[in-house]
């Protein structure tokens, strides 16, 4: 109630909804709702609702708000799995406190510079062949280690270890997740973990659960992902370095 009064006070001082939202660190939609209620009813308190009671306790509602503020790109389904409630309940509870979902962009934005680098990378490797000996538990021949350009992988300690250990890295430009089959494999593993009937409660439990779900992934899934690389390369070239359906 104090916060609602503060919103109205700011409004009467000719502050915009955007300014009030930034000042009080609450969603702009919540600010607008409070102001509309005040204009309609002449008070900040909401009228008693006759609908169904919330399925979440006050503690559960606070936890839900914390989760959303820390991970605004999370889907309702993933949040529902963590809280062990339905995705419809998640959406209803979030709407009640002023949070509203948005559709994610269907394809990531790629800068002109990175699009050019993607094209160069793909054209240079367009005629590579997949070596079937890859699946022979790392033979004695040379190999290239592939990882993406996330900051943790580019840390000085990591680069030093790779150099001292004689590990040759595959050149990998930025903004190229659609060429990395591993991304789909991580997604598969995450979905399997979320589908488990009970959540891990410790690091040890999480490790064991991941190892168990990893062992259940069919080998054909891995082979199909590797075999998809030539198609991914052609897709990037066809898109002139832009985003693809992968």
Automatic annotation (TrEMBL):
<dbReference type="InterPro" id="IPR036388">
    <property type="entry name" value="WH-like_DNA-bd_sf"/>
</dbReference>
<feature type="domain" description="Tc1-like transposase DDE">
    <location>
        <begin position="148"/>
        <end position="196"/>
    </location>
</feature>
<protein>
    <recommendedName>
        <fullName>Transposase Tc1-like domain-containing protein</fullName>
    </recommendedName>
</protein>
<dbReference type="InterPro" id="IPR036397">
    <property type="entry name" value="RNaseH_sf"/>
</dbReference>
<dbReference type="InterPro" id="IPR009057">
    <property type="entry name" value="Homeodomain-like_sf"/>
</dbReference>
<dbReference type="InterPro" id="IPR038717">
    <property type="entry name" value="Tc1-like_DDE_dom"/>
</dbReference>
<dbReference type="Pfam" id="PF13358">
    <property type="entry name" value="DDE_3"/>
</dbReference>
<feature type="domain" description="Transposase Tc1-like">
    <location>
        <begin position="61"/>
        <end position="126"/>
    </location>
</feature>
<dbReference type="InterPro" id="IPR002492">
    <property type="entry name" value="Transposase_Tc1-like"/>
</dbReference>
<dbReference type="Pfam" id="PF01498">
    <property type="entry name" value="HTH_Tnp_Tc3_2"/>
</dbReference>
